[in-house]
From TrEMBL:
Keywords recorded for this protein, A-Z: Magnesium, Metal-binding, Transferase
PANTHER family assigned: ALL TRANS-POLYPRENYL-DIPHOSPHATE SYNTHASE PDSS1, GERANYLGERANYL PYROPHOSPHATE SYNTHASE
Annotated GO MF terms: metal ion binding; prenyltransferase activity
Organism of provenance: Calorimonas adulescens
Protein name in UniProt: Polyprenyl synthetase family protein
Classification via InterPro entries: Isoprenoid_synthase_dom_sf, Polyprenyl_synt, Polyprenyl_synt_CS
Cofactor(s) the protein needs: Mg(2+)
Pfam family for this entry, one: polyprenyl_synt
Native organism taxonomy: Bacteria, Bacillati, Bacillota, Clostridia, Thermoanaerobacterales
Highest taxon above the source species: Bacteria
Sequence similarity: Belongs to the FPP/GGPP synthase family.
One of the GO BP terms on file: isoprenoid biosynthetic process
């Protein structure tokens, strides 16, 4: 039983969303259409459209409009995943071949560009110029976060501050935007909209920290990729960054100068120096902040859903 199943309205609307998403992503080009269809069929958490849909229920809900906005957000997210996988040279995602592995890098790049243009085409139908400029600025920040991550690979000088700034850009901003657009399209009050935006930001931070924790202590069969995958690519995340700060003997840094990495030894030291514990504590702080924003919202089943979604995401195993 999924969380959707506990909330019939959400379940019905998420099912409708899948149909809308597929309609928007139909392509006359057989190759691009096939590649994108494979990606859609692989599924995913669909968190961003769920946030958009739930947020919209705090205002004047219009299903057709919400499906349109939710689809554009998910399509943007899909485009970033394709490009991320190419840059990271990832072979699998959700235990399936990545697009560039299956269809080649050229097709994957075309597909990613197609998705970006499709998303903005959907948005440009009804959104005003100011909204489009705002969305574009968010996507620019997401890209900057990804570029910063790429440029800082294998850097021993990463700090907790730099890490938090990076995940705010590459992950949390899109969570925030998902909530914001849902609230705006439903004409929510300023107070409700601001609480939903802050909730999305804090949830996105907690979500990414959890993701990075799982890279060290996750179950490979559940997370769909090898443990230490980011570490092997030189992407140093919160557990390792904190552990390096506490490693007075320099054992971790010594291990990081040797290739290939001895992943098990590195993970042992990250745990020993409190990297996982620190990351879990910070994740819990962001989760608590997210819930504080939810407590400011009108009490209805959609607020209850967002509370449960928050708990599910920080307790997840994949």
């Amino acid at each position: 039983m999924t969380l959707w199943d506990k909330y019939p309205v959400i379940k019905e609307e998420m099912d409708a969303f899948e149909g809308t998403l597929r309609r928007f992503l139909s392509s006359k080009n057989e190759l691009i259409g096939s590649a994108i269809s494979t990606m859609v069929s692989a599924g995913g958490k669909r968190l961003r459209p769920a946030l958009t849909i739930a947020s919209a229920h705090f205002g004047e809900y219009n299903m057709d409009e919400i499906m349109r906005i939710a689809s554009s957000i998910e399509i943007l997210h899909m485009a970033t995943l394709i490009h991320d996988d190419i840059i990271d040279e990832a072979k699998t995602r959700r235990s399936m071949e990545t697009m560039h592995q299956k269809y080649g890098v050229n097709v994957a790049i075309f597909a990613g560009d197609y998705l970006f243009s499709t998303s903005f085409s959907i948005l440009s139908v009804k959104e005003d110029v100011d909204t489009l400029v705002h969305i574009a600025s968010i996507i620019k920040s997401v890209c900057e976060g990804e570029i910063e991550q790429y440029c800082s690979r294998f850097s021993k000088d990463m700090s907790v501050y730099k890490y938090l700034r990076r995940i705010r850009s590459k992950t949390a901003l899109l969570f925030m935007l998902s909530c914001e657009l849902g609230a705006n399209i439903s004409h929510c009050s300023r107070d409700v909209t601001n609480s939903l935006k802050r909730f999305g930001m804090f949830l996105g931070m907690a979500f990414q920290i959890k993701d990075d924790i799982l890279d060290y202590i996750g179950d490979e069969t559940k997370i769909g990729k090898p443990v230490g995958n980011d570490l092997k690519d030189g992407i140093y995340t919160l557990p390792l960054i904190y552990a390096m700060e506490k490693d007075n003997n320099g054992k971790l840094k010594d291990l990081l100068y040797n290739q290939p990495y001895e992943i098990e030894k590195i993970i042992e030291l990250v745990i020993k120096y409190g990297g996982i514990k620190y990351a879990e504590d910070l994740m819990d702080k962001y989760s608590k902040k997210a819930k504080e924003e939810l407590n400011k919202l009108p009490h209805n089943e959609f607020r209850d859903f967002l509370f449960e979604l928050t708990d599910d995401l920080v307790n997840r195993e994949n």
